[in-house]
Automatic annotation (TrEMBL):
PROSITE patterns: COMPLEX1_24K. This is [NiFe] hydrogenase diaphorase moiety large subunit. Its cofactor is [2Fe-2S] cluster. One of its GO terms (molecular function) is 2 iron, 2 sulfur cluster binding. It comes from Breznakibacter xylanolyticus. PANTHER family: BIFURCATING [FEFE] HYDROGENASE GAMMA SUBUNIT, NADH-QUINONE OXIDOREDUCTASE, E SUBUNIT. The keyword Cell division does not apply. It holds the Pfam family 2Fe-2S_thioredx. Binds 1 [2Fe-2S] cluster. Belongs to the complex I 24 kDa subunit family. NCBIfam families: PRK07539.1-2 (NF005722).
């Protein structure tokens, strides 16, 4: 909790303690902690002299802020009508099969969380996904398999390398 208090304090110093600082502070916490815990939201409420309800309301309003732990990589699949018309439902089925999860769930290894989201601003290149902050467009089930495999290989390599370092 002390580390969290220090993080919130540092973010409040950087962004200020006025109401308009709430969003950048929440984004900073999420960047550091990967989600917004109840404890984090209480600390932010204290630092900004807001009610916890105001902080929680903001945290749950924005789809890119999350209030529960997620996978190391978050896959956001665009669910707009344009992406649906370009094959989004095929991609969703492929992702669910490949990852063995449904929308809103995290893989057993903690590597991926699969979410649907509103427009990613790539309608002219749909269907589209966002993995963390990286957009992927004009997708097919085959291309999805390649992209997911690349993330899995990178994670396996990092895991091997950290095992070598710790040996």
């Amino acid at each position: 909790m002390n580390g969290l208090r220090e993080l919130v304090s540092a973010l409040a110093q950087k962004h200020g303690t006025r109401r308009e600082s709430l969003l950048p502070i929440l984004q900073g916490i999420q960047a550091h902690e990967h989600y917004l815990s109840d404890d984090a939201m209480v600390e932010v409420a204290r630092a900004l002299d807001l009610s916890t309800a105001q902080v929680y309301g903001t945290a749950t309003f924005y789809s890119f802020l999350v209030t529960r732990p997620q996978g190391r990589h978050v896959i956001r699949l665009c669910r707009t009508i344009t992406c649906v018309m370009h094959g989004k439902n095929q991609l969703l089925k492929e992702l669910e099969t490949l990852l063995k999860v449904r929308v809103g769930e995290t893989t057993a290894d903690g590597l991926f969380t699969l979410l649907e989201t509103n427009c990613l601003g790539q309608c002219h290149q749909g269907p589209a996904i966002l993995i963390d902050d990286e957009p992927y467009t004009r997708l097919t089930p085959e291309r999805i398999r390649v992209i997911v495999a690349e993330y899995q290989q990178k994670a396996a390599l990092e895991s091997e390398n950290s095992g070598l370092i710790n040996s």
